[in-house]
């Protein structure tokens, strides 16, 4: 018996490779979901601090958002709910490719608002010392891998939608 699972018509994965990709999807989903829920349950959370500390090409947009209470509210609720929904979809394997793309866009926006470039200094200390590559860029790239190697039609709720059988 061949222990290969078809991702699409041209890519086959062994069971071990499939399970590693599923673990990656679930772990990223957990991280994104947790970030969303943590913001939803915190009555004082706002994106204002992050936006005010923004540097580089989106700093003007960030300041515009913070200066307008309606835009800031939209930014806050959009961020909280996008994180929560994207994380949940990745964890349960539902609409995996759409969730991967949405997650990439959201996380890359964080990266572009506060990139770890030499010469940019932020008021809040970072989690480490980065030059260009940080956890946001790595997580966005991992989501790109999950977009191109979707596992949810084999292990996830997409399997029910697409009626795929695990070989």
Q: How do the strands of the widest beta sheet line up side by side? A: 1-2
Number of helices in the DSSP assignment: 7
Helical residues, percent: 55-70%
Low-confidence stretches: none
- Counting DSSP E segments of at least 2 residues, the number of strands comes to 2
State mean pLDDT (0 to 100 scale). 88
Name the structural class. Answer: mainly alpha
Order of helices and strands: EEHHHHHHH
What best-fitting shape do the alpha-carbon axes yield?
Answer: globular
Distance between the termini: 9 Å
Name the beta content range. 5-15%
Instruction: Compute the number of structural domains.
Output: 1
C-alpha-based Rg, rounded: 18 Å
Largest sheet, strands/sense/barrel = 2 strands, antiparallel
